[in-house]
Design brief:
It is built from 4 helices and no strands. It has one domain.
Length: about 150
């Protein structure tokens, strides 16, 4: 019977130790669960904040794309006006060089030269109406047009 009592004592000690160890493990796991739950809530808040920030950035990107598209259209329009004006000015310069004698002499100006001067003035008037001409350039060109029109 002594062996049986000894067996029971050993078993009791082992079971008690196993229960304490299991209880400690359970407490540790519960603490880990609480930490993970708190981290989940914190990360959920961070996800929400990042979602809001992403939406804001996407809105800014859309606005920037719209602004860039508007700028591109304005640039294309101005570039077209400039290219057309340059072509017209090159032609006007060629005409003026060809018929420069009408400016330097007091002879009667022929119909063709008068027509060329009027075309040149129309080109300059078109430049004045272009969207890229600033106020200072506008005044200078307008003065030129008025002077030549008065002289012609």
């Amino acid at each position: 019977m002594h062996e049986y009592a000894e067996f029971c004592d050993t078993e009791l000690e082992q079971k008690t130790y196993a229960i304490r160890t299991a209880a400690r493990t359970i407490d540790e796991i519960k603490a880990d669960i609480e930490d993970a739950t708190a981290e989940i809530a914190s990360l959920g808040d961070e996800i929400t904040a990042l979602g809001t920030e992403m939406a804001s950035k996407e809105k800014q990107l859309d606005e920037a794309e719209l602004e860039r598209e508007t700028g591109r259209k304005t640039f294309s329009k101005n570039e077209g006006e400039l290219v057309e004006s340059i072509d017209e000015l090159e032609r006007a310069v060629a005409v003026v060089k060809k018929d420069s004698s009408f400016v330097q002499t007091k002879k009667h100006v022929g119909k063709d030269a008068s027509r060329d001067v009027k075309k040149t003035m129309k080109v300059i008037a078109k430049i004045l109406s272009a969207s890229w001409v600033n106020q200072k350039d506008f005044k200078v060109l307008k003065g030129f047009v008025q002077t030549d029109l008065a002289a012609g």
